[in-house]
Amino acid sequence: MTSLTLHKIPGEQAPMALLLEADPSIALIARYLQDGHCVVACLNDVVVGVYVIKALSADTWELMNIAVAPEHQGQGIGALLLHHAIDQARQLGAKRLELGTGSFGHQLTFYQRAGFRVVAVEPDYFLQHYPEPLFENGLQHRDRLRLALEL
Ligand SMILES: CC(C)(COP(=O)(O)OP(=O)(O)OC[C@H]1O[C@@H](n2cnc3c(N)ncnc32)[C@H](O)[C@@H]1OP(=O)(O)O)[C@@H](O)C(=O)NCCC(=O)NCCS
Fold first, then answer.
1. Of 59, 62, 63, 107, which is most buried with the most CB atoms under 10 A?
2. What is the pLDDT of residues 68-92, one digit of tens each?
3. Counting atoms of ligand 1 from 1, which one is nearest the CA of 74?
4. What is the dihedral of CA 37, 40, 41, 47, to 10 degrees?
5. 77 CB less than 6 Å from ligand 1?
């Protein structure tokens, strides 16, 4: 019988390979792991998902990263982690949870289904902050959207 469990872990134990699925920058990941709140999802003691949230101010937190191992995607683990992140942020005193994501792709639907709304566009963000071009479905990511959920 399979069982999925969620655990808070210290940043230095975070599963880097999984975090890189969502954010190809080791430097940026290392920075937000220092003061982030990291939770992993384990299936029979194997880590299959992760998220990191971090305080931007007293009442605003950001979802810095969320990822599910490719072979376990599409089974509801991502949605479970996202709702857990929303609950954790609320419990930690947040009134608003923000995130940055690409301007197209299934991630956008994934967040909007949980209630996130687009609040800003950062033109050329991915060109300016990542050394390598980021492609998805043959299309280059250029602009980043800021999304927010009032808690
Ligand atoms: C985004 C991500 C975390 C979603 O995790 P997941 O476990 O696959 O998500 P779920 O199974 O809970 O799916 C929730 C919804 O997301 C959408 N979705 C998730 N993966 C999808 C995919 N590969 N293709 C299309 N839609 C997808 C679907 O709308 C799905 O709804 P459904 O239940 O009707 O199929 C996962 O795809 C992932 O790790 N991607 C790589 C890292 C990444 O891009 N992170 C986000 C950076 S902004």
1. 63
2. 999 999 999 999 999 999 999 999 9
3. 11
4. 170
5. yes
Q: Each residue of 91-146: pLDDT tens digit?
A: 999 999 999 999 999 999 999 999 999 999 999 999 998 888 999 999 999 999 99
User: Beta strands of 79-133 (E only): which ranges?
Assistant: 96-102, 117-122
The full DSSP string for 7-24 is: EEE-GGGS-HHHHHHH--
Is the CA virtual torsion 110, 111, 114, 117 positive or negative? negative
| Ligand 1 in reach of 117 Cβ (< 6 A) | no
CATH number belonging to the domain at 4-150, selected among 3.40.309.10, 3.40.190.10, 3.40.630.30, 3.30.700.30: 3.40.630.30
